[in-house]
Design goal:
The protein has 401 residues and is an alpha+beta fold. It is built from eleven helices and 18 strands. 35% of the residues are buried.
Length: 401
């Protein structure tokens, strides 16, 4: 759990010499045989800024949960207050009840800003679209080991492409959903990954082919090249901490990015090993994924491996528009799949532990609403009103474009 007011700004800020107080619950105390003797209640740990990442890893490995991070208070003369005093102040200011989901005050935001971005290295750049597919989509992995960037599943980072625009000014950043868990693809807390489709379209007036500035820059990036990264940002698409939650995911194209991160966190063995507080997902994860052709199913082998291994906890439903037909004989889009399963989805949605996530093309939203509205009306419920209540309860999450 992180507080952006504490960790915002760049690695080169004056925060480098400051101290912070971590409020931690559930640290395991071990005997000589590495067996857990007991778990602590609330513990306060004072940490210098330069060791924040290392201390987070240590706390996680010992089974602890970080409840809050606060700067060590000043006594008004520029000197730090004693650890005991700071702990007391932090303890008094904390509420006793823990939220069931992420508090939006505990999320890392803008650790690196556009004026002072993190400069990382591209480690790999791999094609995700198989032969016979449409367009190009790349999976890119960047090195974060030289900085203080960290993030949560469901957040985004910004990328500032090299070069200048038509006015001679530096290009503005573009945001991309993160496709890796907080521990990265190598589960070493040193990388972040993106899923990027190259934007290509025809100019409506000149009919010239236009290539997206940042997407083309990223898709053509060579391993070893430096890239300017900002962020992380985003509070809309975070996963609940509840291992018993049901997670319904609806994605088109590169909207799969945050859902890949979710599924890795839920089901990958290496991920489970480093997440003692979230290592045995017991709910149901159901992914609806819309693509134009089978070769465009991004991360197909990963998804189907999880489906095969965890069939009791993961369902996978494709909508392949150019190969499958809907009930009316037209192309099969994701909203048609939602309509097919609307009654079952509505039953799940009424469970307070169910969260719905939608990511990708905005055009799918109306069809999804129509299908769920029809299902809800069968039980006498107004869907729009119910959806608003879900949004208020932080159970309805949408990130579309």
């Amino acid at each position: 759990m992180y507080n952006p007011s504490v960790v915002g700004g760049s690695a080169n800020s004056t925060a480098g010499s400051r101290l912070y107080v971590y409020e931690v619950e559930g640290l395991r105390q071990m005997d000589g045989a590495n067996a857990t003797v007991r778990k602590s209640g609330t513990t306060f740990i004072t940490v210098p800024y330069s060791r924040m990442n290392q201390e987070m890893k240590r706390i996680t490995q010992m089974g602890g949960t970080i409840v809050s991070i606060r700067p060590l208070e000043s006594n008004g003369s520029g000197s730090a207050v004693s650890t005991t005093q700071s702990q007391s102040a932090a303890s008094k200011s904390m509420t006793q009840a823990k939220p069931k989901t992420h508090s939006k005050k505990e999320i890392p935001v803008n650790i690196y800003k556009p004026k002072n971005p993190y400069v990382g290295q591209c480690l790999s750049n791999d094609e995700l679209v198989a032969e016979g597919g449409i367009g190009t989509v790349r999976h890119l992995k960047f090195d974060l080991s030289a900085g203080d960037m960290y993030y949560l599943e469901g957040q985004s980072i910004g990328v500032i492409p090299e070069g200048t625009d038509e006015n001679g000014k530096p290009h503005k950043l573009r945001l991309y959903s993160i496709a890796s868990t907080r521990h990265g693809d190598d589960v070493d807390d040193k990388t972040v990954s993106l899923c990027v489709r190259q934007l290509v379209y025809e100019h409506p007036e000149t009919q010239e082919t236009v290539y997206g500035v940042c997407s083309t820059y990223l898709c053509n990036l060579e391993p070893g090249a430096e890239v300017k990264i900002t962020g992380p940002v985003g509070k809309e698409m975070l996963l609940p901490d509840d291992e018993d939650a049901n997670i319904i995911m609806m994605a088109t194209g590169t909207g799969i990015a945050p859902f890949r991160a979710y599924l890795w966190r839920m089901f990958k063995d290496n991920e489970r090993a480093v997440n003692p507080e979230y290592n045995n997902f017991k709910g149901l994860a159901w992914l609806f994924f819309g693509v134009p052709k089978t070769p465009n199913i991004l991360y197909k082998e990963e998804l189907e491996e999880i489906q095969s291994k965890y069939s009791d906890n993961f369902r996978l439903t494709y909508a392949i528009s150019r190969e499958q037909k809907n009930a009316e004989g037209g192309r099969m889009y994701i909203q048609h799949r939602i309509a097919e399963h609307a009654d079952e989805l509505w039953q799940m949605i009424q469970n307070e532990k169910t969260h719905v996530y939608i990511c990708g093309l905005k055009g799918m939203e109306d069809g999804i609403d129509a299908a769920l509205s029809e299902a809800a009306s069968k039980t006498g419920v107004d869907w729009e009103e119910y959806r608003r209540s879900m949004k208020k309860a932080d159970r309805w999450h949408v990130e579309t474009y």
